[in-house]
Specification:
This protein is of the alpha/beta class. It has helices at 36-51, 70-87, 96-102, 145-151, 164-172, 182-185, 189-201; strands at 3-8, 13-19, 24-31, 58-66, 91-95, 111-118, 121-130, 133-136, 141-144, 156-160, 177-179. The protein has 2 domains: 3-95 and 188-210, 2-Layer Sandwich (Nucleotidyltransferase, domain 5), CATH 3.30.420; 104-185, Nucleotidyltransferase, domain 5 (2-Layer Sandwich), CATH 3.30.420. Strands 6, 7, 8, 9, 10 and 11 form a 6-stranded mixed sheet that branches. A 5-stranded mixed sheet has the order 3-2-1-4-5, with helices on both faces.
Length: 224
């Protein structure tokens, strides 16, 4: 049985999935206390054991490419690259905010996908409907809640990681902004796996040695 392993460690929410091209065999998503290094490898071993598969069954590996936390992305990317090189599997990297958008049913309003960036900042990206899918309108960027809400013109959907401060500002916002339910906006590796399947069918995979994370930085900030 050939399967795709999908790994997303872009933030404190970690998600894993195994997909055989037709069925989602396993999906596990949890909130970590920044213990990516300790928790990721045992979770992958448990996923193989639970589905009675092994790394030899892998046909491809999908990884959330970023933006996200430096540590989380580095750990996930390192594991994904190592497995891809060891097994000879293609590696498919998918931008993190596109994974958020993939879980949201297409609607007439624009969608803003969000990740927490720390210190009151967000990684945000706007999408608009194109046929039956969301297409990014502009690159992802680091913003504050004030800047994001000021930039919105009219109705919008918000999906992703929204902190308490953000919820307070949204509750006071007079614009018709709708926060989607948590079950819809949770970033899930099952969607990452299915996005990887589409990219593989279109010939979009990469040499694992050439794939790098997407990091966003404030203007003038030092690079890590």
């Amino acid at each position: 049985m050939a399967v795709i392993l999908a790994i997303d460690t872009a933030t404190r929410f970690i998600s894993l999935a195994l997909h055989d091209g037709q069925r989602l065999l396993l999906e596990h998503t949890w909130l970590t206390a920044n213990n990516h290094t300790v928790e990721l490898a045992p979770a992958i071993r448990a996923a193989f054991a639970q589905t009675r598969t092994t790394p030899s069954n892998l046909s491809a590996i999908a990884i959330s490419q970023g933006p996200g936390s430096f540590t989380g992305l580095r750990i996930g990317m390192g594991v994904a690259k190592g497995l891809a090189l060891a097994t000879g599997c293609p590696l498919v990297a998918v931008p993190t905010l596109e994974i958020v958008a993939a879980a949201v049913p297409v609607a007439p309003e624009p969608l803003v996908a969000i990740l927490q960036a720390g210190r009151g900042r967000l990684c945000a990206q706007m999408f608009r409907a194109a046929d039956d899918r969301w297409e990014p309108v502009a690159p992802s960027a680091i913003v504050t809640w004030d800047r994001l809400l000021t930039a919105l013109d009219g109705a919008a959907l918000l999906a992703g990681e929204i902190d308490d401060g953000g919820r307070e500002m949204l509750a006071a916002c007079r614009q018709p902004v709708r926060v989607l339910p948590a079950a819809v906006t949770l970033r899930r590796a099952g969607f990452l796996a299915e996005m990887a399947l589409s990219r593989l069918a279109a010939g979009q995979s990469a040499d694992p040695r050439s794939v790098t994370p997407i990091y966003l930085h404030q203007p003038g900030a030092a690079q890590p």
